[in-house]
């Protein structure tokens, strides 16, 4: 089975089955390994920044080495190699889970259950949700889908196209360490520096390609592609992260809504730039449209990556 077919099969499995929670999950092992490395290295290395760098190198080495050894062993039986390769790729993609989480938010809002919607959106965002109104819940949900489109779908697709299952899981290792350590608080400002910087680097190109694919996808599903391009050009740098506003800006333009703005995190108000134009109130239907846009963008981006790979090889 070619790598291209393995990637397509894995993506379809994700759409059909979602995250394989009942099976051994590489990303869960990576997370456990990262936390164990943190606990050990903090005890033996006085410099938090150096300990964080070594933790990143250790987790990447063990992840890449383990996946490579399993695939090398499985290559003795071509069918078994395909099984492991597809499974590793499948665990790297999270398009269905991303859509399912946001659908739960949509369903709660559609039934007038604001409290339930707040609880559901709290599962996918880092901000405080207890005081959000209906529009605030919708905004948080759409922002999360637009941002996590890269982390959960298109960046793994990119690294899978570049370096196969090993590349996809090395990316997931980087992304997992960033989610565990990449906080600008007292505990992680130094220890998490390497994980955060490497995550920014790993997402830099995928985020920009994804934003352009999102504009194409908006045209395909008959949203406002011209406005998506306009807002992307204007607002793509309006975020503390070098990558997050790329897709958020394009999505805001395509949906004709405004994202960003002030939010509470751990009880502290953080003023963030707005992305997109004000005017249209965010409604539950926009969450459903955002999901359609996310899936269409995933397909467009994956097609582009595989096309370029096919042309270069």
Radius of gyration equals 20 Å
Order of helices and strands: HHHHHHHHHHEEEEH
- Termini, distance in Å? 16 Å
Strand order of the main beta sheet, please? 1-4
- The shape, in one word, is globular
Q: How much helix, percentage-wise, in residues?
A: over 70%
| Structural class assignment | mainly alpha
Which spans have pLDDT < 50 for at least 5 consecutive residues? none
Structure commentary:
The chain is mainly alpha-helical. The protein has one domain. The chain contains eleven helices and four strands. The strands form two sheets. The chain has a two-stranded antiparallel sheet. It is globular and about 60 Å long.
Entry summary:
This protein has 313 residues and is mainly α. The protein is 73% helix and 3% strand. It contains 11 helices and 4 strands.
Output the keywords.
single chain, 73% helix, two-stranded antiparallel ribbon, 313 residues, mainly alpha
Task: Set out the fold topology.
Elements: H1 3-17, H2 26-44, H3 48-74, H4 78-92, H5 95-110, H6 114-121, H7 134-181, H8 193-220, H9 225-235, H10 244-255, E1 259-260, E2 263-265, E3 268-270, E4 274-275, H11 284-312
Antiparallel strand pairs: 1-4, 2-3
Helix pairs in contact: 1-4, 2-3, 2-7, 3-4, 3-7, 4-7, 5-6, 5-7, 5-11, 6-7, 7-8, 7-10, 7-11, 8-9, 8-10, 8-11, 9-10
